[in-house]
């Protein structure tokens, strides 16, 4: 079975670097990895890249070069920084920092045809660390939010 893992954890802060790995592929198998995220307004953002597995049937995006797609070359975070909406002029924006963006990482056989899903996992990308207190500040014309560490 194909396993997709996000290290060090499937749950992290939005700006934390992650390592995306795929195991259980055939040696030198060509696959497409796709990242998908639906924002708070329901807009779908996606990125994809084609990869060739190593001799042991594994991929590590920090060492494996993307052959084509939304980007090419060795880009450990490429599936995240290249996320785009199909609709023009749409930007990824976060309105509620108390909920995460959930990014689905999916692996498909070959390229072009996204009908044969081999494996997937979801990465929760939070904007507020555990234990951080969020305090609204309203004083006269001042409106702010104070974030206090745990």
From TrEMBL:
GO terms for molecular function: fatty acyl-CoA hydrolase activity. Residues 15-139 form the Acyl-CoA thioester hydrolase/bile acid-CoA amino acid N-acetyltransferase domain. InterPro entries: Thio_Ohase/aa_AcTrfase, Thio_Ohase/BAAT_N. GO terms for biological process: acyl-CoA metabolic process; fatty acid metabolic process. It holds the Pfam family Bile_Hydr_Trans. Gene3D superfamilies: Acyl-CoA thioester hydrolase/BAAT N-terminal domain. Coiled coil: none annotated. PANTHER family: ACOT1 THIOESTERASE, ACYL-COENZYME A THIOESTERASE-RELATED. Belongs to the C/M/P thioester hydrolase family. This is ACOT3 thioesterase. It comes from Anhinga rufa (African darter). The gene is Acot3.
